[in-house]
Amino acid sequence: MRSRVETYYDETYKSYMIGWSSDHFHMGIWDDGTNNHKESLVNTVEEIAKRLKISENDIVLDAGSGVGGSAIYLSSKYSCEVIGISNSVTLINAANEKLSNFPDLSNVSFHYMDFNHTSLSAATFTVIFGLESISHSDDKMQFTKEAFKLLKPGGRLLISDGFLSRNNLDRSEKRIYKEFIDGWAIPDLKTSGEFQKIFTKIGFTNVEYTEKTESVLKSVERMHRNARFSRYIYLVLNKLKLVPRNRYRSAKSAFLLKKCVSKKIVEYGFLYGEKPEN
User: Fold this and answer.
1) What is this structure's pTM?
2) What pLDDT is attached to residue 1?
3) Distance set, CA 72 to CA 137, 140, 226 (Å)
4) What is the rounded distance in angstroms from the CA atom of residue 52 to the CA atom of residue 74?
């Protein structure tokens, strides 16, 4: 039986491809030198690569690899080996189709797998990252355990994702938050502090959280603008049984994201940790 997340992406990925990017489904990081949306999406991958100090010597696991854009980009630029995994057959097929356009890129592969419970060998990777994928995990402690197992001693882990800004939400804020995460098939979000404690408990050291909310505000606004009308279009199309309901719910969450950010319910950031050498 398909998981909720697999069903979600099977039914919505075309909306992402058309309305956001054919390569990347994540938020874009903007700085003074960013000229457009496409550049902002690449910026996010570059920021991750910089924080993880990725080089040609690395073996990288992209945990929740989407349609493969980030893995292909990293391998193309840094000559590192990248394995991408996803629990959506649809996304893996899309990633492999994209990879077929890069016949000289032999050090990238994509596999259907649950990043909470992989079939990969322990101590295989020097780098693991999850780019807006780990929020979909229904057991973030288990993901962190699995990542720790898969990393070689000295390996680095980074989660680039949304985090709950605070736990003291009032009734109205809880309703908005619940509707937002439900529409994107997210079971829950941790605060950065809660997730840092998980990292530390599992054994990661040099744990550090860097908030990036300000840098993604233009992406939040773009998503809000795109969803302002599309959510109604998808609602009508769903009523006519022309598209699955997840298309409407996803668009509604995209619209609600701006409110979640402005009310300081949700924030964006990088969470980093290292597996000790010994």
Assistant:
1) 0.96
2) 57
3) 23, 26, 27
4) 12
CATH code, residues 4-167+188-213+266-274:
3.40.50.150
- What is the SS3 assignment for 151? strand
- In sequence order, the 6+-apart residues with CB closer than 8 A to the CB of 154 are 126, 274, 275, 276, 277
What is the C-alpha to C-alpha distance for residues 275 and 31, in angstroms, rounded to an integer? 31
Q: How far apart are CA 242 and CA 238, in angstroms?
A: 6
216, 268 in Cβ contact below 8 A?
yes
Q: Taking the CB of residue 229, how many other CB atoms lie within 10 A of it?
A: 11
Distances 244 to 20, 110, 162, 248, 265 between C-alpha atoms, Å: 19, 27, 25, 8, 28
Q: Which residues contact 38 (CB under 8 A, 6 or more apart)?
A: 21
Distance CA 203, CA 106 (A): 33
* The two structure tokens encoding residue 272: 């980093």
HEC per residue, 116-150? CECCCCCCCEEEEEEECCHHHCCCHHHHHHHHHHH
Q: How many helices (H) and strands (E) does the chain have?
A: 9, 7
Residue type, 128: I
Residue positions counted in the chain:
278
**Element containing residue 63 per DSSP (H, E):** strand 59-63
pLDDT in tens, 161-194: 999 999 999 999 999 999 999 999 999 999 999 9
